[in-house]
UniProtKB/TrEMBL annotation:
Domain Aminopeptidase N-like N-terminal: 21-185
GO molecular function: alanyl aminopeptidase activity; metallopeptidase activity; zinc ion binding
Function comment: Aminopeptidase N is involved in the degradation of intracellular peptides generated by protein breakdown during normal growth as well as in response to nutrient starvation.
This protein's name: Aminopeptidase N
Organism the protein comes from: Rugamonas rubra
Pfam families xref list: DUF3458 (PF11940), DUF3458_C (PF17432), Peptidase_M1 (PF01433), Peptidase_M1_N (PF17900)
Species lineage: Bacteria, Pseudomonadati, Pseudomonadota, Betaproteobacteria, Burkholderiales
Domain Peptidase M1 alanyl aminopeptidase Ig-like fold, first and last residues per copy: 447-552
């Protein structure tokens, strides 16, 4: 397959002013007629018009009114080229597609009998021939024609300007989008749907129409999405001064979708998972996901749509920035400092669980990649989550006001344009009079920097020095890295646990509890003055940069931070370090057959935190979750998944036994009687209560089993019901009857059936044979991405000790399903292929099995570019 390089970017030879599209919708044979006005781009030397097209049947091609015959254009691979074109061109193109056969869920497809589109990144070319690249922005008018009884609702971007009957049972709707946009933001929906709608008044006084469209029977699950949309609109007005620019904003839910949602202009299309919720079917985590994703897609209207990407190498320009915005939105919605910290800790966990491994693996790439084979493989945690960290660092360096100034300048300069990450950085720098030249390395260098700290206290001079050294491990194609510009937020704790007022060499930040040190060299020493006692340093507060911090903390220092740090992220972090040190030792002990033990100090610290009523339940829950098996594995030279699992289980079992009375007390103290509410405080209580329950069920006696059974039977919401069932499954108790009743209660709720598969897939007792058996269940299908992910991905990524079974049988299963999925949906298959990214880190025996499985996939004929890129990079 062909690799595409950022350095080869050329401006488009022709720009498009207007696009008129006509659709005669039919599942087996949809006719698409387009009329496109183009003009030569003075920035290009070429006079060739290059159109992209895939899986299309070309019926008719006319240029300035004249039909072009095959010799007058070139059709090769996925491009159609018209050489030496006039300066001004009107193209009229007619194509045929078969949406019902489109299992890729890219382009125009059918889901449960309805039509939907997904055009990002390169789906528009599966609808019609077009310069399908984000730097070609045009105004669209769309005419939809379809059978009225089957597809009563016809939607597209922008405003509905006309609708009516066509006779013979068909009807039409004409939509016009007043804003120019790249083709990846085009969308249509033709469906039998119903909507919840509301007129909403913007801060300016302008009234807009908001709609949430779902299948009949789901109208009782749209309130939270609607509320989240209204909150998003208000938040963007208040925090960034950004107003909704359309008179109508629609969200449509679809059951078959490759990702979470899509920000098509004015017509956001969502995976049902991020729309549908009521207390019966959705958990607290689902509710939080809906708020975040509704916000995310809405915020794209400015960061992505009004200002878009010049090319797909700049993807993080819109995704990193929009994730940062949705993170800030969710944090502001909670409103308290501790709630904000809880969201921040969650972000750090995601980075460590998924992004750090990606940055150290075969698919490592910079936030702005230099090359790719298949762009769909680059919708990654690096582009999204690390990209958001990079944006967050601007705010840390410039302050909230400085960041806002940078945003304002960015829109002032680039509204209506397709730009680069460098343009965003320039706006931040220019608006604040700062040189952010070195900051560019966050975009160009892959890998997770390691910052090593050393400290020195001089009691006589009353100074405390922190020396920071940075280095970044090599990644493919990037042997040597240059120093990053790293904001390191630091506080110092006195013996009483309180923050010392800091005075540094930097003149403008005196007397604060936290200062942001700017590490730009390979090594720098920062001095704090007037320090009366040897402090405990709290370094990288609020996780101020996406780095690995190395500091030789003593146990006593960590315990001090774990009990007192005013920065909740570092307080949590101290607990993670205490646990990790012990987990690594226990893993070695398991592997070498040594006896296992857990010290009383650690248990006492966990106990103190568990019962500390001054702390939010949500924070306590997070602080008591042990580092995951994946995160432990990342710390090891040679990974032994079963040893890690046993070590972690031992720690959980020991804590459960030692803290049983406290766990039971917290279980009872954190009940949330009354009507269900997904607010952060109630959700935090449920989280802590259910964590306690899961501990109590590690080695349960009849009383604990009864508690879980009672919660399962009487739960008034899905959070508690699912948590009880998971705890029962993990306890190893006989749960066939519970699984059966759960399924029966929810068999018509697809998202709950996904949960039913997911909880079984991730259970430590579920081996590959059990997964194969579950695949025979009538509700299982590979064709629906949510369903495939619920069982297969939750097994390969969420059940490490079973996926890495010594005989390699689960790797064979993986290979078989990557190949099967690839024939249906290459994007989903390539995601599954990534489960094997870190194969070289396992024991030689496991490596050999994994290599064989990877080679089996690589050798398969007719592999998509998506999967080929992933497996060949893994094997390289
Ligand atoms: N911008 C959207 C990306 C997306 C996508 C990309 C490739 C294939 C399918 C897709 N569905 C959505 C989602 C977002 O980040 O907002
Ligand atoms: Zn996005």
């Amino acid at each position: 397959p062909q690799t595409i390089f950022r350095k080869d970017y050329l401006p488009p030879s022709y720009l498009v002013d207007t696009v008129e599209l006509g659709f005669d919708l039919d599942p087996a044979r949809t006719i698409v007629a387009s009329r496109v006005t183009l003009r030569h781009n003075p920035a290009s030397k070429s006079r060739d018009i290059v159109l992209h097209g895939e899986a299309l049947e070309l019926v008719q091609l006319r240029l300035n009114g004249k039909t072009l015959r095959p010799g007058q254009y070139e059709l090769s691979g996925s491009t159609l080229t018209i050489r030496k074109a006039p300066l001004a061109v009107v193209l009229e193109i007619e194509t045929l597609t078969a949406p019902v056969k489109n299992t890729t869920l890219s382009g125009l497809y059918v889901s449960n009998g309805n039509f939907f589109t997904q055009c990002e990144a390169e789906g528009f070319r599966r609808i019609t021939y077009f310069p399908d690249r984000p730097d070609v922005m045009a105004k669209y008018t769309v005419m939809l024609r379809a059978d009225k009884a089957l597809y009563p609702v016809l939607l597209s971007n922008g405003n509905l300007i006309e609708q009516g009957e066509l006779g013979d049972g068909r009807h039409y709707a004409k939509w016009e989008d007043p804003f120019k946009k790249p083709s990846y933001l085009f969308a249509l929906v033709a469906a039998r749907l119903v909507c919840q709608e509301e007129r909403y008044t913007l801060q300016s006084g302008r009234e807009v129409l908001l709609q949430v469209w779902v299948e009949e029977g789901n109208l009782d699950k749209t309130d939270y999405a609607m509320q989240s949309l209204k909150n998003s609109i208000r938040w963007d007005e208040q925090r960034f001064g950004l107003e909704l620019d359309l008179d109508r904003f629609m969200i449509v839910a679809v059951g078959d979708f490759n990702m979470g949602a899509m920000e098509n202009k004015g017509l956001n299309i969502f995976n049902t998972k991020f729309v549908l919720a009521n207390s019966r079917v959705a958990t607290d985590i689902d509710y939080a996901g809906i708020e975040a994703v509704v916000g995310h897609e809405y915020f794209h209207n400015w960061t992505g749509n009004r200002v878009t990407c010049r090319d797909w190498f700049q993807l993080s320009l819109k995704e990193g920035l929009t994730v940062f915005r949705d993170q800030e939105f969710s944090a502001d919605m909670i409103g308290t400092d501790s709630g904000r910290a809880v969201t921040r800790i969650d972000q750090v966990r995601t980075l460590r669980q998924a992004q750090f491994p990606e940055d150290a693996g075969p698919m490592a790439h910079p936030v702005r990649p230099d090359s790719f084979v298949e762009i769909n493989n680059f919708y990654t945690v690096t582009i999204y989550e690390k990209g958001a960290e990079v944006v967050r660092m601007y705010q840390t360096l410039l302050g909230r006001d400085g960041f806002r100034k940078g945003m304002d300048l960015y829109f002032e300069r680039h509204d209506g344009q397709a730009v680069e990450c460098d343009d965003f950085r320039a706006a931040m720098a220019d608006a604040n009079g700062r040189d952010l030249g070195q900051f560019e390395r966050w975009y160009s260098q892959a890998g997770t920097p390691v910052v090593r700290a050393e400290t020195n206290y001089d009691a006589i001079a009353r100074t405390f020095d922190i020396t920071l050294r940075q280095h970044c491990p090599a990644s493919a194609g990037q042997e040597h890295k240059l120093p990053f510009h790293i904001p390191v937020a630091v506080g110092l704790l006195g013996a009483d646990g309180r923050d010392l007022a800091l005075s540094t060499d930097a003149k403008d930040r005196q007397g604060q509890a936290t200062v942001v040190l700017e590490l730009t060299g390979e090594e720098q020493t920062f001095r704090f003055h007037d320090i009366a006692e040897r402090p405990t340093p709290s370094i990288l507060r609020d996780f101020s940069a996406p780095v690995v911090l190395e500091y030789d903390y003593t146990d006593a220092e960590l315990l001090h931070l774990f009990s007192h740090d005013s920065d909740p992220v570092n307080r949590w972090e101290a607990g993670q370090r205490l646990a990790m040190e012990r987990l690594l030792k226990l893993t070695t002990a398991v592997a070498t057959g040594k006896p296992l033990a857990l010290d009383a100090t650690f248990i006492a610290a966990q106990r103190a935190l568990l019962v500390d009523e001054t702390l939010d339940p949500a924070f306590r829950e997070l602080a008591l979750i042990l580092p995951s098996e994946t995160i432990i594995a990342e710390q090891m030279e040679v990974v032994e998944p079963q040893a890690i699992h046993s070590a972690r289980q031992f720690m959980r079992r020991t804590l459960a036994a030692a803290l049983k009375p406290e766990l039971l007390a917290q279980y009872h103290a954190n009940q949330t009687p009354g009507a269900y509410s997904p607010d952060a405080l109630s959700a935090g209580k449920r989280a802590l209560k259910n964590l306690a329950l899961s501990y109590l069920l590690i080695a349960p006696q009849e009383a604990e089993l009864a508690l879980a059974r009672q919660q399962f039977a009487e739960a008034g919401n899905m959070t508690d019901r699912a948590a009880a069932l998971v705890a029962l499954i993990h306890s190893g108790a006989e749960v066939g009857e519970h699984l059966h009743s759960f399924y029966q209660d929810f068999e018509h709720e697809a998202l709950v059936v996904d949960k039913w598969f997911a909880m079984q897939a991730a259970a430590p007792g579920t081996d590959v044979a059990a997964v194969r058996k579950l695949m025979e269940h009538p509700a299982f299908t590979l064709k629906n991405p949510n369903r495939a992910r619920s069982l297969i991905f939750n097994f390969t990524n969420g059940n490490p000790s079973q996926f890495h079974a010594a005989d390699g049988s689960a790797y064979e299963f993986w290979a078989e399903h990557v190949i099967k999925l690839d024939a249906l949906n290459p994007q989903v298959a390539a995601r599954l292929a990534r489960s094997m990214d870190r194969w070289r880190r396992y024991t030689p025996a496991l490596q050999a099995h994994m290599q064989r499985a990877l080679e089996r996939v690589a050798a398969h004929a007719r592999l998509s570019n998506d999967v080929l890129e992933v497996v060949s990079k893994a094997l390289a």
